[in-house]
Amino acid sequence: MGGQATGTENRMKKEVLYRGERIYLDQDFTTKLQNQRKGYMRIRNHMKENGIKSHIRYPAKLLVIEDNGQKIYNTPQDAERAYGLTESAVAPERGAWIQQLQRTGWETVQRSKKN
Fold it and tell me: InterPro entries, from UniProt (predicted)?
């Protein structure tokens, strides 16, 4: 191919060169898919804090690697349930903050009309 490496070879090397210069390629996901993948952020942070390896597989599945093998979760909720995570277990301060906001009353203020 005239000195150009194939895409598969480049992905294997994790480095892409064009005319001797390194170039960077980003994954191009739809907004919907990006949001689905982003849904795993909380559970992945929890896993990282507890030394559990995980990867997001295409399109939006969570691969968890533990000593006893691998498990794939199709939704963030499935993974959170499997690891016993609840809203309060992940972010207790957020739950308290929401309760405080709910106790606080809101007032509607009318705007004065300019003549």
Answer: L1_C
Is the pLDDT at 62 greater than 70? The verdict is yes
pLDDT on residue 28: 82
Torsion of Cα atoms, 84 then 88 then 90 then 91, to 10° = 180
The span from the CA of 33 to the CA of 19, in Å, is 33
Q: SS3 for 95?
A: helix
pTM of structure = 0.55
Beta bridge partners of 17: 22
Assigned CATH topology for domain 29-90:
Rec A Protein; domain 2 (3.30.250)
